[in-house]
Structure formats: C-alpha cells, structure tokens
Amino acid sequence: MTVINFTKMQGLGNDFIILDYEEYKKTGKTPEELAVKLCDRHFSIGADGLIIVNPDTKKTDIGWIFYNSDGTIAQMCGNGIRCFAKYVYSKGLVNKKEFSVETKAGTIIPKILDDGRVRVNMSKPILISAKIPVKSKNNLNFDLKVSDGTFKANAVSMGNPHCVIITDENTKELALKYGREIETHELFPEKTNVEFIKIISRKEINLDVWERGCAITLACGTGACASVVASILNGLCDNKVKVNLPGGQLEIEWNGSKDNSDYDVFMSGNAEFSFTGCIEI
User: CA-to-CA distance for 102 and 60, rounded, in angstroms?
Assistant: First the structure.
C-alpha cells in the first residue's frame, strides 16, 4: 500500500480533492482510476472532481489536470479553478496573486483578491455550434426534444459545453428530472452540462445545474458563466449579474452582446479549504 497526502477544498459546495504532482506519481495509477477511487463518497474521501497540480508547463506559470468523479476528463471547471488558484498560491507554488494556468480549455488567468475571493478571467465564450459542439444550426433558442416535451435551449461553451434553459418553473425539479437525459442527448456529441435558470431581474438569476460526469452539484462556475452569457444574448440581463446557486453566489461580468461577443467573461467567488489528510492507495 502507498500512502499519499491530499487537500480537500470547496467552492460554493462544489468540492475537490487536490494532489501535488509528486503525490499523484506515487500511486502508479492513471488520473481516471484515481478520480473514480478517491471521489467515491461511500468508500473514500468523496468529491465532485480530482485536481492534480502540473508544474511542468512552458508557456504558463503552472498547470492542472482535472477529472470528474466518474473518471472523465473535463476541459474546465469554474469552481475548481478558484480552489486550485487559492491552493497553489497558499502553498507558494506561484509567487504572485495573478498568474496563468494551463488547462484543456486554454490559458486561464485567476487573481487572488484582497477579500480572499478569487476572480478568474474565463476567456471568451464559444458560440459557434460546431465548436461547442452542438448539432444545431443556431446555438440560441433551438428546439430540444426530451421524452415528454420540448425545451427552447441555448448552447454555450466555456471551454466545456453547456445547455442553458431559461424557465419560470422550478429549476431544481427540472434539473433532477431532465438533467441526465439532456446531458446525453444526441444533439451534444461530447455530452453537456445542463443549466436551468430563472431570471429574477436584469442583475440577478437563480441557477440549478446538472454537471456532465457528476450529476447534480451545488454549484458550477462555468455553468454560471454560460448562463449569464445566454441571458445577455437573449436581452434579459445586464453585463454584471449575481448568480444564485444552491451552494452560494457568484458574480459574473461579460461586456459582450449579440452584436459583439468578443469579450472575456470574468467570474468572482469564494474558494475554501476543507481539510487535509492522507489515504492508503
């Protein structure tokens, strides 16, 4: 048996196991195997995802390897990147409060704020159907047929695909009922995260999410970003929006519009240490 050290963190209740690269290498296992084993809430530590620090980068200050709890790789995770940023800064793995991170979604730039929150430049949203990807000519307000009806859906990628549905109904109930069906829908060749949102005002929305590879979670940072982008493109929200998730609040800023979407999305929110420990592998 090999003993490894780990850190558990959470962002709005979306929780992650973080391993230094040396600890990961001790195990001799693939990241997929480790994610499934360590994220099991009944027989192991339990988490929504596994983050491995990758110090071996050439074009950025640091990098990460991220896997969902089911062992699938994820290009990006908004809550995860805030936890990762706070972890590597606190551990002295980077020596500045604003730095670049290599991810499967490209270079992401987080900044540790004076109030302890983390602000992340999440880069530009992807709105071209083939690049999201979604099998629909238009990415906004297309018909999405489910087992007992049809939704008007919006597809946005924040480095990972999202299906955003704007509704006046109970968002939690809809996420529970339709999340898995939409995640694996034939229109999404790489599967998708699913967000049901309710517009409260031009400056505030409520959101419940079904995450690809995780099922229902308390929060999704990229989902909050995608939801605000979709709301703005539909003319329903201003450029700075408070997003209420079951695990807490995020602040999302995007200066884009239907006429000009070439702007970066910024996400601000908390990231907290839960505990550290060791486990036999």
Answer: 6
In CATH terms, is domain 129-263 a member of 3.40.50.10490? no
* pLDDT single digits (tens) 182-203: 999 999 999 999 999 999 999 9
Please list the active-site residues: 77, 220
| Partner residues linked to 107 by β-bridges | 102
Alpha carbon distance 222, 226 (integer Å): 6
Sign of CA dihedral 229, 233, 238, 244: negative
Question: Residue 96: is it exposed, middle or buried by C-beta count within 10 angstroms (0-12/13-18/19+)?
Answer: exposed
Answer yes or no: is pLDDT of 74 > 90.
Answer: no
User: Is residue 1 over pLDDT 90?
Assistant: no
Topology of the domain covering 3-121+271-280: Diaminopimelate Epimerase; Chain A, domain 1 (3.10.310)
What pLDDT digit, counting tens, does each position of 129-169 carry? 999 999 999 999 999 999 999 999 999 999 999 999 999 99
